[in-house]
Specification:
This protein is an all-alpha fold. The protein folds into 2 domains: 248 residues, no CATH class; 239 residues, no CATH class. Helix content is 77%, strand content 0%. The protein contains 24 helices and no strands. Helix 4 packs parallel to helix 11, helix 8 runs parallel beside helix 13 and helix 22 packs across helix 23. The longest helix is centred in the N-terminal third of the chain and has 34 residues. The chain is globular, with a radius of gyration of 26 Å. The relative contact order is 0.08.
Length: 557
C-alpha cells in the first residue's frame, strides 16, 4: 500500500506539473503573467456558476409542488456520468497505454494492478474537474432550496467522489479488453483507431437509448407522474440505476433510505473498480508489451524505386503536412481528442432535438427562424463550434513534444512549415463544417442558398480562429509532456485558444448587433461580415508567419 501511494503521489504531481510550475514562477520567475490570467478566469467563471445556481433554483420552485424536485439531482448526475463515459474512453487509453513514463514503470517491481490503480486515480482526479461545472451548481442550488443540513452536504460530497467511478471503470474495462485484442495483431495502429471509433459509436448509441427513454408517454404514465412523488426521478434515471441511487443518497440524508442507497452506490462503484484491477492484473502487460513495435515487409528495391524513395520530389509544404498527418493519426489520443467536437456537437444537437420537439428547443427555433439573417448566422455559428472550437490548432506545436527539434533543424523555412501546419488544422475546420452541414440539412431541411452562405462564413471565420490558436500555441508550446493526453486535455494553450475564440465570436456578435440597430439590409450585413473576416484572416496569417520566423529560433527543446 505504501508503494502504491508513493506511485499515486508521483503520478498526480507529474500530471499537474506542480513542481515545474513552482520552479518557473518562483525560481526561474517565468510565466508570472499566468497568475492574473488564472485569477481573471476564476472571477469570470464565478458569475456563470452563480447564474446556474439561480437557474436550478427556478426549476426547483416549479418541481417542488409536484414532489419531483429530486429529478434535478438525477438529471445532473446522469449527464455528468455520460460525459465521463464518453470522454473517459480516450483519457483512459492515453493514460494506460501511451504514457511515456510506462517505459520506466514497467521494469520496476510493480504489479500491473498498482500501475493501473495509479493511472486510474490520475484520470479520476481530472474527471472531478470535468464534472464540477455540471454537478456542483445543481448540488449547491438544491441544497440551498431544500435547506439541506449537514447530512445532505456530507452525502453530496461522498456521491461526488464516487460519481465518476462507475462510468470511468466501464470505459477502462472496455479499453483494457480492446488493447488485449489489439496486441495479437500486427496492425495495431489501425485496430486501436478502429476500436476507439467503435467504442465512440457504442457510447453514442447509449446516448440515443437514454434520449429515447419514455418517448411515448401514455395517459397512465401522466397520471402516475402527477400523483406519485419521485416519478420523474425514475423516468429520468430508469436507464441507468446508479443515477437513482446517488440522487436518493443525497436527498434522503442520513435516513435509512439515504444510507442504503449511498451504500449501494458506493459498493457498486467499488465493485467496478476491483473488477478493473483484476482484469488489468491479468491482461494489462499483455496489451502493453509490443505496442510500440513496427512491422514491415522487406523487399529489394530497384534502382528506379530507390531513386524515387530518396528524392520523391514532394514539395516541402506537402511533406510537412504529411508529417503532421502522421503525428495526429498514429496517436489515437490526438486524433480522437482533436476531432471529437466535430462528431460530438452535431450528435448532441440530434439528441436534444430527439428529446424534445422543435417548438420547445430554442436553438432549433433560431436556426429555423423566419428571419433569414438570424437563420444564416445561427447555422454559421453552429458550424464554427463544430469545426474550430477544438484543441487541434491550439496544440499544433505542443503535439510534437520533444521531437520539435526536428522542425528546427530540417531545411524547411518556418513560413513553409506554418503553411503545412495551418493546412492540417484547417482541415479539421472543413470537416466540422461538412458534418454540421449534413446534420442541418438532414434535421432542418435548411435551404441550399442559406446553407451556402452559412458555410462560407464558417470557413472564413475558421481561418481566423485557426491562426489564433496556432499563435497561442507557438507563443508557449508545451513540449515536455510525458503523456500525450497532456498535450491537448491538460494544455493551457487549448483553454486560452478557446477563450480567445469565444472572445472573437462575442465581438462579432456585438458588431452584428450594431449593424442590425443601424438598420442595414441583411445582404449588406453579410457582405460586411465577409469583408471584415477576410481582412482579419489575411492580416492574422501574415502576423503568424512573421511571429514563427522569430519564435522558431527562440524555442528551446
Amino acid at each position: 500500500m505504501r508503494r502504491l501511494m508513493a506511485l499515486v503521489r508521483a503520478d498526480v504531481r507529474s500530471n499537474f506539473g506542480w513542481s515545474v510550475a513552482r520552479h518557473r514562477l518562483f525560481v526561474a520567475k517565468k510565466d508570472r503573467w499566468l497568475v492574473p490570467v488564472f485569477a481573471f478566469a476564476i472571477l469570470s467563471v464565478l458569475p456563470a456558476l452563480y447564474g446556474l445556481v439561480l437557474f436550478v433554483r427556478d426549476i426547483y420552485v416549479v418541481l417542488e409542488p409536484l414532489g419531483q424536485q429530486r429529478a434535478l439531482l438525477t438529471l445532473a448526475i446522469l449527464i455528468a456520468q455520460t460525459f465521463v463515459l464518453l470522454f473517459g474512453l480516450y483519457y483512459v487509453m492515453s493514460a494506460f497505454y501511451f504514457s511515456r513514463d510506462l517505459e520506466f514503470l514497467v521494469p520496476l517491481p510493480l504489479r500491473p494492478f498498482e500501475i493501473i490503480a495509479s493511472k486510474f486515480t490520475v484520470v479520476l482526479v481530472n474527471e472531478y474537474l470535468t464534472i464540477a461545472i455540471i454537478v456542483l451548481p445543481v448540488f449547491i442550488g438544491y441544497g440551498v432550496m431544500a435547506r439541506g443540513g449537514p447530512a445532505y452536504w456530507i452525502n453530496a460530497l461522498l456521491v461526488y467522489l464516487f460519481l465518476p467511478v462507475i462510468p470511468l471503470a466501464i470505459a477502462a474495462l472496455l479499453v483494457v479488453g480492446l488493447m488485449r485484442v489489439v496486441n495479437i495483431s500486427r496492425r495495431k495502429d489501425a485496430l486501436i483507431l478502429g476500436g476507439s471509433i467503435l467504442l465512440l459509436v457504442m457510447a453514442m448509441g447509449l446516448q440515443f437509448v437514454l434520449a429515447g427513454a419514455d418517448e411515448h408517454v401514455g395517459a397512465a404514465a401522466v397520471t402516475r407522474f402527477m400523483t406519485s412523488p419521485d416519478s420523474l426521478l425514475y423516468m429520468v434515471g430508469s436507464r441507468f440505476p446508479p443515477s437513482i441511487w446517488s440522487s436518493k443518497a443525497i436527498a434522503a440524508g442520513f435516513s435509512v433510505d439515504g444510507l442504503t442507497n449511498l451504500a449501494l452506490f458506493s459498493g457498486i462503484s467499488f465493485g467496478f473498480f476491483v473488477a478493473l484491477l483484476i482484469l488489468a492484473n491479468a491482461f494489462f502487460y499483455r496489451g502493453l508489451v509490443g505496442l510500440g513495435e513496427v512491422s514491415g515487409r522487406k523487399r529489394i528495391l530497384t534502382r528506379a524505386e530507390l531513386s524515387q524513395r530518396v528524392s520523391s520530389g514532394r514539395r516541402p509544404v506537402l511533406a510537412i503536412f504529411a508529417r503532421e498527418w502522421r503525428i495526429m493519426n498514429r496517436t489515437p489520443v490526438f486524433l480522437l481528442n482533436g476531432t471529437l467536437v466535430v462528431l460530438i456537437v452535431p450528435v448532441m444537437l440530434i439528441l436534444m432535438a430527439k428529446a424534445g420537439s422543435h417548438e420547445r428547443f430554442s436553438v432549433l427555433q433560431v436556426m429555423t427562424s423566419a428571419n433569414p439573417l438570424f437563420a444564416v448566422l445561427s447555422v454559421a455559428a453552429f458550424m464554427v463550434v463544430c469545426g474550430s472550437l477544438n484543441g487541434t490548432s491550439s496544440s499544433t506545436f505542443s503535439r510534437e513534444g520533444a521531437q520539435f527539434w526536428i522542425s528546427r533543424v530540417i531545411p524547411v523555412t518556418p513560413r513553409e512549415q506554418i503553411a503545412a501546419k495551418f493546412m492540417h488544422s484547417y482541415l479539421v475546420a472543413l470537416l466540422g463544417t461538412l458534418t454540421a452541414s449534413v446534420v442541418v440539412v438532414w434535421l432542418l431541411r435548411f435551404p441550399a442558398g442559406q446553407l451556402a452562405a452559412a458555410a462560407g462564413l464558417s470557413l472564413v471565420a475558421g481561418v481566423l480562429l485557426t491562426v489564433i490558436g496556432m499563435m497561442i500555441d507557438l507563443a508557449r508550446p508545451l513540449l515536455d509532456w510525458t503523456n500525450p493526453q497532456k498535450a491537448i486535455k491538460q494544455n493551457l494553450n487549448v483553454l486560452f485558444g478557446m477563450c480567445a475564440d469565444l472572445g472573437v465570436l462575442t465581438a462579432l456578435y456585438f458588431a452584428i448587433r450594431a449593424m442590425v440597430r443601424a438598420r442595414l439590409s441583411h445582404g449588406a450585413i453579410l457582405v460586411l461580415l465577409y469583408v471584415v473576416l477576410c481582412v482579419l484572416s489575411a492580416a492574422s496569417y501574415a502576423a503568424l508567419v512573421r511571429f514563427a520566423e522569430r519564435r522558431y529560433r527562440e524555442i528551446e527543446t
